[in-house]
Amino acid sequence: MSGKKKERVAFQGELGAFSQEAVYQLLGRRVEVVPLPSFQEVFQSLKRKQVDAAVIPIENSLAGSVHENYDLLLNYDFRIAGETNVRINHNLIALPGVNFRQIRRVYSHPVALGQCLKFFERHPRLEKVPFYDTAGSVKMIVEERLKDAAAIASAVAAEIYGARILRRSIEDDRRNYTRFFLLRRAEEVRLTGAQVGDADRWKTSVVFTTRNVPGALFRALGAFALRDVNLTKIESRPLRGKPWEYLFYLDLIGHIEEPRVRNALSHLAELADFLRVLGCYPRGE
User: Fold this and answer.
1) Is 39 a catalytic residue?
2) For 20, which DSSP code?
3) In 3D, which of 59, 285, 84 has the Cα closest to residue 183?
4) In which element (H, E) is residue 268 found?
5) Model pLDDT for residues 186-227, shown as the tens digit of each residue
6) Options 3.40.190.10, 3.30.360.10, 3.90.1330.10, 3.40.50.1460; which CATH number does 7-87+176-187 get?
7) pLDDT grade, residue 3 (50/70/90)?
8) What pTM value is reported for the model?
């Protein structure tokens, strides 16, 4: 039996949250998961070395980006070490013995409620009640023994808290995925020296700012277009202290050691007022 200590991995939410599934997809089940109430606490726990890694959602295929986490990525010196995509399957969950006709209120995270609008249209008697977490809503109705309420969450949450699934897959769109990042402290991740292999298997994420002058962003993006570097996402966020100026978060296909990527980033560095590589990591499936 190995005496190796289990990695502790933080995520936001309660046990049974979709973020927990992302942890297992990224690192396997031989880790100790550490659920925390907020994204800020997840980042703080990694900074204070209370955990070895963290897993955060960064965007949903229907709801869009998680802007709070983009802002936190800028404020902490962490590196993106991996990514994965989790299929989001929403279930209506209640106490054992409670039937669907008894339900009057449905609790869940606002994003989850918003992804099940067709279900609520079919059942207008049901009141949508926002809650801080999907799995947390299941935990709450079980702890408070609510017989006129249900929650929307994962099947795993129902299993963990001893609840019953009344309706499965009630989401509006079955092609509902959330992308998650694996984060580690910067000093524990090397951005160079990896076996590059097939460059298309890698993704690199950066954040930068440009001068607020005509054509600045066009020229910045041209650094990649000139070298046929494929950009998969660009996200703008307000630059605090400078009204109407922006940070740009960029994902590109390729490894940081690949010559065309390295040259593109060098070119961008000449044009940008600020540039930071957030991570270079294997692409998620």
Assistant:
1) no
2) H
3) 84
4) helix 259-271
5) 988 876 544 556 768 999 999 999 988 889 999 999 999 999
6) 3.40.190.10
7) low
8) 0.89
What fold does the segment set 91-167 form as a domain?
Answer: D-Maltodextrin-Binding Protein; domain 2 (3.40.190)
Q: What is the mean pLDDT of the chain?
A: 93
Q: How confident is the model at residue 16 (pLDDT cuts 50, 70, 90)?
A: very high
pLDDT of residue 196: 56
Residue appearing with tokens 């630059």: 239
Known catalytic residue at 43: no
Let me know: does 285 contact 180? Beta carbons within 8 Å. no
Domain 191-282 has CATH 1.20.1250.20: no
Residue 247 has pLDDT above 70, yes or no: yes
Task: Select from 24, 30, 44 the least CA-distant residue to 185.
Answer: 44
Report the SS3 class of residue 188. Answer: helix
Quick one: CA dihedral 91, 97, 103, 105, positive or negative? negative
Identify the H or E element spanning 40. Answer: helix 39-47
- Asked whether this chain's domains 7-87+176-187 and 91-167 adopt the same fold, the reply is yes
Catalytic choice (18, 78, 131, 180): 180
Among the listed residues 178, 204, 209, 210, the single catalytic one is 178
* Residue-range domain boundaries for the chain: 7-87+176-187, 91-167, 191-282
